[in-house]
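Appendix B. Raw example, untouched.
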Amino acid sequence: MMANLFEPLDRSCDVPVWRQIEQQVLQQIRSGELRGGAKLPSALELARRLNVNRHTVRRALDSLEQRGAILADPSRGLRVREECYDYPIGRRTSFSRNMHNLNVSSGNKVLGTALVMPPQRVAESLALARGERAWWIESSAHAEGRVLDHGQAWFPAARFPKLGDVFQRTGSVSLTLAEFGIADYFRSYTRVTARLAGSSTARVLEQSPELPVLVVESLNVDDKNQPVQYGLTCFAAERVQLVMSTAER
């Protein structure tokens, strides 16, 4: 338990007890003894274990929260802030490429595939004719054991027959499109909004429904400017920091 990691508090020195608690928690975070996402005891429980006043612990925890070291999650209590990844969005945007550039292990999990009549906004973005169907893919992406996003993507079915089977096998948009002869594709637009996760997305992201997500709506096109993929991806806002890049990638 966390309290077992504490050294004895020195009540005779010039450093206030609350500051000693704060410093020891910071040391545990920096050393990796407390990892990102780790749950902390409540102020009352920690005060009891350390045999100090609850307000003393509360002052230490408030200071840690102000410093950005810990977070107060409405549904999960106090926990260590997780590492946040920079996620560049530019002319070429690829999850696997971004994670490779960060030198972190990553992967995708296919949650569902279907041949569907897409919503009107999707059909218009993909320039589909009336009644034309699209492949719908639901997936999640993870890095170093943490889920980073919950995504939905649509692809023109007439152009990409059996795309669902291919994506199930590859788990990658880039590899899937390459099998259909599209060696490269480009971001036509990106629109970013924010909202609370909600129950279904929170379940996939393994976070509280009351925590925010960054919603990225996007359209990818081929080298002839023909739409190939419409995407709607929810990123865990505490784990991903979107970086708008103008550099060629």
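End of appendix B.
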